[in-house]
Protein: HNH nuclease domain-containing protein
Amino acid sequence: MSFSQKIKEEILVLSARHCCVCHKSKGVKLEVHHIIPKQQGGLDIIENAICLCFDCHADAGHYFAGHPKGIKFSPNELLKHKEAWFKIVREHKILPAIKSITGNISKLNYKLKMQQKVFKELIDHEFVRKQELGYFIYNTSHMFISLKVIIRSVDDVMYPRFYPEDYTGITGWFKVMIYNTYHNGIELWLDPGQGRKAIIDKNGYWELLEDRFDARLQSSEYVGLDTKMIGQIPYNNIIAIEARGDEYASEPHIYCKFANDGQPYENIYYKSFGSPENYIPDMELDVEKMTVFG
Structure:
């Protein structure tokens, strides 16, 4: 005998089709595993069932306390992993990943539900209602309940500890300024306080400068610009939102899949600084006209 279809379905729903050990979304590449092996008297009941990806299932399936290499998953540890992950799914309303849902309609429904969640939990609706028409054209980030958010990978195991200074690549969690929403997700301002200079010519071609004191900033051929680097996270990469933060960081926490080459962004682009006092909005720089002047 094995688990009934009813028990398998319930475990898959409770785990949101994520592995209870590594927390990765695996779509259909999952097993419902016996925590206590049947050979040791384990029963086909939901209390003895856990959702595991193929890799973790391979490790758990060969558990032997006297194994000479590594520390395999014990039944007691598996039970704790199961309980901890089910709690995370409940509290953060984690949904099955898009890749486990077939069809464009399902993908669209997920996007719209997450969009509603962002607008409900991250927008300061009372403040928005009090502002004059057009205010947010020049002050996009003011619509949010917080100017900063914590972006957290669903696979991160470091939070709230900091990553080592010599760590290369994007860290699994970081604090950043939230900038705006767009048709497909949220936008983050990635380099506040350290944005790069750019020069642009009369035809709209522009170059991002390595040196903030580049001599060409004084040339009559170009206009100097301060830039903002903007990262776009699609709603489909957002898994859960913890709007009130936690005891370590009170800013909203946004849990994401770092699904694009280890990053949560589907696109990164640049804008020139505007001037709210003079009713000048930030202006997007045309990526097709990005160049290196000779």
Residues 103-289 form one domain.
